[in-house]
Structure prediction request, 493 residues.
Amino acid sequence: MPLLRTLLLIFLTACTFAPIATRTPTPAPTADTLDEYHRALNAASQNDLALADRATRYDLMLTYTADPPTLAGNQRVVYTNRQSAPLGEIYFRLFANYPDYGARIVVRNVMVNGAAVVPILEARETALRVPLAQPLAPNDSLDVRLDFVLTIPRVTNSRYADFGASDAVTLLPSFYPLIPAYDARGWHIEIPPPYGDLIYADAAFYTVTLTAPSALMLIASGTTIDARVNGDGTTTTKIVGAPMRDFDLNIATRLQKSSETLDGIVVNSYYEPAHAEMGKQALRFALDALRVFQARWGAYPYAEFDLVEAPITALGIEYPGIIVLAQSMYENTRQLQTLEFVVAHEIAHQWWYNLVGNDQVNHPWVDEALAQYSEVIYTEELRGAATAQQVVRRYFGDVYKRVVAEKRDAVVNQPVAAFTERSYGEIVYGKGPLFFDAIRKTMGDEKFFAFLKTYATRYRYRVAFPEDVLNTAEQVCACSLRAEYQQWILESK
Prediction:
């Protein structure tokens, strides 16, 4: 999910540029529920709900306490087996227990279709296995309910973190029990290295109701459709989002906001008051990137898009409808070019990771290399082909030449765990985009951009694998691209 954890901070800086389970049909959403989900989509994407047929539906009731920072939740999930074989269990990922986060989530009172279940913690307590007494048949559904309590670590000004409470904002990425993807390899409960992405999940529908102190500002995936002030100094806010790979929540104490509207999309930039100039520049970059990418490969689907300044270790991290950007870039106007590139990269992920899903743990290049090459397209549209080729040469070509000269080349199509932190940046983010540059030269611009639009449309709210990238490109150009794929994705020198 992130662009550029610590490795890319170095990279871009260097570039300077006993349960009982029964078969239950999927509950049909009520008209009111569908209406609510439609409110999360912009006018151009109102038909997208139909593209996420039988998607998992999450309904979360949350209460946030600021001192100490704690989130208590009650969660209902309606899950449909979309596989061709029965499932004997389902899993929930507990990413708050990820070793580098320093948080703690405890799940209690798990019920499947009204019957109590005893779940089993696995994968260093980042996965919760929920056994089913009777296998869940294809196209059948079940209803899971559970309670959880999340203890949130405090983050000091000297300790950057991607999960936790700082003076300005509390970051809660993928804080709730999340059902991971199930594919030909089974349930995905791997624990990637800290410089890789955590999320590999299907698109889902979300309804999130959060009660929190009224003085706090909520910045989340999706759209707020209701806010009720209570008599005890709290406000209860209802947020909906669909279809989305996961749900991100940020709770701010002192951030300011600048907003503009583009094609019916409300774009919000949140930043520290002292960093207003850079916060407004980030907003301008986001508007440019959304304009370029929508024209090239299709509509951004949501009614809102948010950018949030935060004290994170990465330069930027993407979530559905929202990106979080490193405070370090806002503190120095000399980081303006880096901020622009990071914003473009993370917004490209709204298509490559969120709309078009992929296995980010085992095939990270599928979204990361394409998000990197999207920066080239962004630059080309705004500053011309010559400047864009400078980006290709400096950020990708020169990096890869150095890797080859130092005899550190590696195959691109590998899991995150196959790389060191340094080589992950050089190979996936540096070498990987050269594949897209190579096939663009072979295909020509017209067919290359037709390929990207076809790929974005064909796999919208689905999951794409490496061969899907290649097959789509070859179908569009009616040519073989096996030599380029072999050279840049499957081989090393």
Notes: The two ends are 28 Å apart (CA to CA).
